[in-house]
Backbone:
């Protein structure tokens, strides 16, 4: 039975690791005002940051999904570790030696399973690196040299070599105290006829690291003709390694991705190496699987999902590469970032391009990428014979929904005009109207785009209404009506006033307003307006098109009408609103939210009763104390406490 980690050592770990430093390993954090930081929540999918970190308190909280806690809670929840495993993981990173109540210093047998597996991978990675210098690994060194990678490059990326024998790694790891069960669970070993054998044999090895830099798996490249295995062999699914959640190179690229707001997605390990060595240090790759939704979530948390971010996909120019590009386009709307595609001349991948034409060619490939929308539109049109009227009509019906899905209205219009030219349709306004119609229907349905099967029931020359106003094959959905608002409620009145300021005078409430969670607006329609403001870029990015954007992202007509109403309704101040008045509304809404939470926590304390465990009771009491202190600061300091 593992001993309990001493309380003073747990405290030492908490104190040694600032919470913002730990969380920044997983996502980008920006100033949220009031000493807090904000980012996209790693516990649920969101388009605007509702996840906040308080470095001074050592706490995090998401106003979207209500996940919260301290540094250890964050590591436990995100990496699915036990309390002891989380302490051990952070202690290992800080060099703190843990003591256990039963005595001894951090004995290996007492570490949690995941910590043991991480340590096994770390030791295995070192073993593989050392083996790359062996005589047997000459074939691996030659492979790297032929692709333009010297010893320094191999060391930078931790490339190694797995000996060709059956159990070289297993015997080495056994000598380090690891059991066969641990090696099988980790994926470093496979079950053979006579027991465990090395999974990777006679291959070049790339360590696959998670976003924090821990090795969690390996990718192995075949080198010999007599190797009957696949060209690339990866670690199987394990408690550490889930290929759909992993991006190769993310540990090296994450800081530059967050700094520049740009990510380059390539297809393989050597492509990542080539890009980084050529100066494109934001390059990453998937590990034996297509780029999909879970990969998008990782990138979005680093990019902060704003419209100035940019994701570039590089694919081979062959048919498979084009299919991969179109799959990436299907996920485009899950990014707020611009998405582009880069296809090198001759269909070379970045590694081949660097070898043939040098580092500058790789940089130029990325810099000269074209919008992914453009590629998708071209692909849709190319499938039809535009020399005939029937072909042009079919091409329009396939390409128009793609154009309608473009987020930026001005860019959407330009692409609509360009589509008319590409199809040879002289009446470009007809194409523009068709695209606008599809975009409007998509917004009304709250979906990414229209259902082409239903839309094609209406001919391209017909309007949205037939004679007598009846729809031709398309029924416009009736927007849901929101609940009636009790305007006599003080909370609803102040929430309404704050939303009016956010829409009419965004500069007065920015940036504080953008840090407010939807749950601070108790009336559901007001929460929907808050969400629309966030999805439109927030008050911090308000410009001449701000109100237009807010209305366009509204999920239905009910919310869209409410936005319009709030945008024109006068505020309750007798003179023009100023920062003092805006601050009063900000504080009032936040104070009400704090008081609501205090009531909830007090009720929770009552439910727990005197028989509650000390740890559980202490956590609730600590939260209550923190809320009460914060409420007092709001009363005494006003906006300075936000």
Residues:
């Amino acid at each position: 039975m593992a001993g309990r980690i001493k309380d003073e050592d747990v405290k030492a770990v908490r104190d040694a690791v600032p919470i913002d430093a730990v969380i920044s390993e997983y996502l980008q954090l920006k100033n949220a005002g009031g000493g807090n930081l904000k980012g996209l929540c790693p516990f649920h999918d969101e388009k605007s940051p509702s996840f906040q970190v308080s470095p001074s308190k050592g706490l995090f909280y998401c106003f979207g999904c209500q996940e919260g806690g301290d540094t250890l809670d964050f590591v436990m929840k995100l990496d699915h570790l036990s309390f002891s495993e989380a302490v051990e993981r952070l202690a290992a990173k800080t060099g703190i030696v843990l003591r256990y109540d039963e005595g001894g210093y951090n004995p290996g047998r007492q570490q949690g399973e995941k910590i043991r597996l991480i340590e096994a991978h770390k030791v295995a990675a070192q073993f593989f690196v050392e083996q790359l210098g062996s005589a047997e690994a000459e074939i691996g060194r030659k492979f790297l040299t032929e692709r333009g990678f010297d010893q320094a490059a191999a060391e930078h990326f931790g490339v190694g070599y797995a000996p060709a024998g059956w159990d070289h790694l297993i015997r080495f790891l056994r000598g380090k105290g690891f059991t066969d069960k641990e090696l099988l669970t980790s994926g470093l070993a496979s079950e053979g006829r006579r027991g465990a054998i090395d999974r990777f044999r006679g291959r070049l090895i790339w360590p696959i690291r998670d976003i924090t830099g821990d090795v969690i798996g390996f990718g192995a490249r075949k080198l010999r003709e007599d190797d009957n295995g696949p060209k690339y062999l990866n670690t199987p699914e394990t408690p550490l390694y889930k290929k759909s959640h992993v991006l190769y190179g993310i540990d090296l690229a994450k800081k530059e991705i967050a700094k520049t707001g740009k990510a380059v997605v390539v297809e393989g390990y050597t492509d990542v190496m080539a890009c980084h060595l050529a100066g494109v240090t934001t390059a990453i790759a998937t590990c034996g699987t297509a780029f999909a939704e879970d990969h998008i979530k990782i990138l979005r948390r680093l990019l902060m999902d704003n419209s100035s971010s940019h994701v570039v996909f590089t694919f081979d120019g062959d048919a498979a590469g084009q299919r991969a590009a179109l799959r990436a386009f299907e996920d485009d709307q899950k990014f707020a970032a611009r998405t582009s595609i880069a296809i090198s001349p001759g269909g070379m991948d970045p590694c081949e391009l660097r070898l043939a034409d040098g580092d500058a060619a790789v940089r130029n490939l990325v810099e000269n990428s074209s919008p992914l929308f453009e590629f998708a539109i071209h692909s849709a049109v190319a499938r039809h014979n535009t020399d005939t009227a029937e072909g042009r009509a079919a091409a329009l019906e396939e390409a128009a929904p793609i154009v309608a899905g473009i987020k930026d209205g001005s860019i959407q219009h330009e692409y609509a005009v360009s589509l008319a030219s590409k199809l040879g349709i002289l009446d470009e306004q007809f194409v523009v109207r068709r695209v606008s119609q599809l975009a409007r229907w998509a917004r009304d349905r709250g979906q990414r785009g229209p259902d082409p099967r239903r839309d094609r029931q209406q001919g391209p020359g017909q309007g949205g209404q037939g004679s007598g106003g009846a729809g031709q094959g398309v029924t416009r959905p009736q927007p849901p009506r929101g609940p009636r608002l009790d305007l006599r409620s003080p909370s609803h009145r102040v929430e309404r006033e704050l939303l009016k300021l956010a829409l009419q005078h965004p500069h007065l409430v920015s940036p504080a307003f953008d840090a407010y969670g939807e749950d601070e607006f108790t009336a559901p329609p007001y929460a929907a307006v808050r969400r629309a403001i966030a999805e439109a870029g927030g008050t911090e990015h308000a410009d001449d098109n701000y109100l237009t954007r807010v209305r366009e992202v509204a999920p239905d007509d009910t919310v869209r009408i409410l936005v319009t109403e709030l945008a024109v309704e006068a505020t309750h101040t007798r003179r023009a609103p100023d920062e003092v008045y805006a601050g009063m509304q900000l504080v009032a809404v936040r104070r009400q939210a704090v008081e609501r939470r205090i009531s909830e926590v007090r009720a929770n304390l009552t439910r727990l009763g005197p028989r509650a465990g000390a740890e559980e009771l202490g956590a609730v009491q600590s939260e209550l104390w923190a809320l009460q202190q914060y409420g007092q600061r709001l009363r005494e300091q006003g906006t300075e406490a936000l």
Summary: Residues 113-240 form a domain with the DNA primase DNAg catalytic core, N-terminal domain fold (CATH 3.90.980.10). The chain is about 50% helix and 10% strand. The first helix runs from residue 7 to 16. The mean pLDDT is 84.
